[in-house]
């Protein structure tokens, strides 16, 4: 029981506020990670599908 009380007094690490600069850095890192996921998947699938390098980044229409 005393162990639970000590945890409540110390606070949880995920509840801490690291400050404006660290939050901006974490936000920028998150945006870069999302962008990398959006770009990497079509490149990998396009390469596996045998598309030439000139067409890997082009969207295709369904005509």
Structure, explained:
With 63 residues, the chain is mainly alpha-helical. It contains two helices and no strands. It has helices at residues 2-10, 20-48. It is elongated and about 60 Å long. The chain starts with a helix and ends in a 15-residue tail after the last helix.
Quick tags:
63 residues, mainly alpha, elongated, 2 helices
Work out the number of β strands. Answer: 0
- The coarse overall form would be elongated
Strand fraction: under 5%
Which secondary-structure class do the elements indicate? mainly alpha
Please report the distance between the alpha carbons of the first and last residues.
68 Å
Unreliable stretches: none
Radius of gyration: 22 Å
Query: Portion of residues in helices?
Result: 55-70%
Biggest β-sheet description: none
Number of helices: 2
Mean pLDDT: 79
* SSE topology string: HH
